[in-house]
Amino acid sequence: ILQNVTKINDTLIFNNPFIYSNKAIDIDFTGERFIKESELEKLNEYRKKCEIFPYNVNQGFILSNNEKKRIAFFSQGLSLCEIYDSNLNLICKIVGPDSFDKQKIKIRTDDYKSLVYSGSIPWAYTDVISNSQYIYAVYIGRMINTEHYDNNLRSTPGYIIQFDWNGNFITSLILKGKLLSMTYNEVINAIYAIDYNGNVVRYDLSKIL
Questions:
Q1: Is the pTM of this model over 0.70?
Q2: Hey, which end of the chain has fewer CB within 10 Å, N or C?
């Protein structure tokens, strides 16, 4: 499930739905990654400046860690993750390894102009969880053809990548197929996940990471 809001220091932080940058298709809507609850009026300013609404292609996952004073963003459609401090200053940006140069995005015209994927859908980070020390992100890094969408996802390999809260890579685990969801059990230091076939899978982190 995509997560577009988090809380740090009792302040709600929202993903800005009006920013999106993709050099492959010559689109660059710059701006603040996050908007504080107390500054939501900024969204109206972005909306007025934005000729095309990029919400469908700029979604991702937001996580926060009050102890580390960190906020993390992982993109679903781009190979991109960013780490910020609690004042929303960018301290680390990780791009790649995949560029998704072949993705096709079109402008859908309905009540307003919006960007949508056409044909294959890029899958970068598809789920992200964390504990007090680390972030665990599921990464696929592939274009998924919508014609046989379920079968393609079921057999698509990927990784669980472990980062610390400063964005440093720790290690990774190879997956045989896409995970639908996962959660972390701190007591036994393990990740429980549901794969695309409905099976419950357990990863003992002390043994494999």
A1: yes
A2: N
Max Cα–Cα distance, the chain, nearest Å: 52
- Mention every residue, 6+ apart, whose C-beta is less than 8 A from residue 147: none
The pairing of strands 169-175 and 179-185 is unpaired
Contact 13, 35 (CB under 8 A): yes
Contact 172, 160 (CB under 8 A): yes
Report the distance separating Cα 49 and Cα 47, nearest Å.
Answer: 5
Instruction: Provide the H-helix boundaries in the chain.
Output: 41-49, 149-155, 205-208
Predicted confidence (pLDDT) per residue in 77-102, tens digit: 889 999 999 999 999 999 988 776 66
Tokens standing for residue 71: 């906020």
* Cα–Cα distance for residue pair 58/92, rounded to 1 Å: 19
Closest of 113, 125, 106, 62 to residue 88, by C-alpha: 62
Per-residue pLDDT of 24-36, as tens digits, reads 677 788 889 999 9
Residues 6+ apart with CB under 8 A from 161: 136, 137, 138, 139, 169, 172
Q: What is the DSSP letter of 41?
A: H
- Cα(93)–Cα(81) distance, integer angstroms: 6
Compute the distance between CA of residue 90 and CA of residue 72 in angstroms, rounded to an integer. 10
Calpha distance 113→20 (Å, rounded) = 14
Task: Find tokens 């929202």 and name the residue.
Answer: 14
